[in-house]
């Protein structure tokens, strides 16, 4: 089974990213042949500053490696180290209807937010389909927001097969994180970088404390009994603390005599405990950027060999040479 997913290099990773995506990526890396990449071509639709793009790519690489991505188990690489996917994007775009792309939720959302779309944004799902199909991926672990993109990928594969009378690609299936709940942010809405309500995985000390203490709650006094499920600190605690301690906090909140401040302090300690090792590893990796670069470069070579074979088959199917002519 081949597992593949892409991660947008979009800044600090937070608890929502971890419990909604990263944890599942790491868990799956030994269940099959896993390919994970940093989606820098996609990022270019929003980040058009070379120094910033490099910085963001470096950050996600550190985050994933620190959180347990094992480059001997999974192939970890930069999307742009496999330029074959951009050629496949073109081949797929020739069979993809405008209507299919115009129905994209993510695209429609952006339009609704007043963004003037560029062609790259419109073609975003085609590039994503190329990512998935280039590696003949079976399973694509993603968040709910990306499921439509996988369905579009299935459609594009079929359109290509029908147009050219071939069977070049494998049909991918989306896999949602188990029990994937939306992780609430400090204001109680979905945690998201765009709402400035995140708790960063690699935040520490004062900034982390400030974030956790700013989590919204109702105004019940210490002595009053509280509904744990309506308490954001408890909801986050459930994700990071061991089950017995979660049950204990639930009881204390319901009994009364346990304040939201107490719950926040417990949450802070649990976050620190849960990510202490990853933070240490991240510091060590950050001090050795060459080793990180080596991991990405080696992953890129492995990934490229796979994509080149699939692209060759696609080129042949449309009536081109199986492999592009190289060098003079
Ligand atoms: P953000 O909203 O902070 O920009 P992204 O959209 O880049 O986050 O999300 C990256 C991944 O993390 C996606 O797979 C997404 O489904 C998941 N994710 C993001 N926020 C949450 C959340 N609050 N709860 C669960 N999963 C989330
Ligand atoms: N669009 C995905 C996101 O925003 C990232 C991504 C790019 C991706 N290419 C992919 C995910 C291929 C899965 C498979 O999260």
How would you characterize this protein structure?
With 328 residues, the protein is mainly alpha-helical. It folds into two domains: 2-182 and 289-318, HUPs (Rossmann fold, 3-Layer(aba) Sandwich), CATH 3.40.50; 193-284, Orthogonal Bundle (Tyrosyl-Transfer RNA Synthetase). It has helices at residues 15-28, 40-43, 50-66, 84-93, 98-102, 105-112, 119-122, 124-134, 147-164, 205-213, 232-240, 243-255, 260-286, 289-318; strands at 2-7, 33-38, 74-78, 139-142, 173-176. Strands 1-2-3 form a three-stranded parallel beta sheet. The chain has a two-stranded parallel ribbon with strand order 4-5. α3 packs across α13 (260-286) and α4 (84-93) packs parallel to α14. The chain is elongated, with a radius of gyration of 22 Å. The mean pLDDT is 95.
CATH topology of the largest domain: Rossmann fold
Helical amount: 40-55%
| Structural category | mainly alpha
H-E order: EHEHHEHHHHHEHEHHHHH
How would a textbook summarize the main sheet?
3 strands, parallel
Q: Low-confidence parts, pLDDT < 50 over ≥5 residues?
A: none
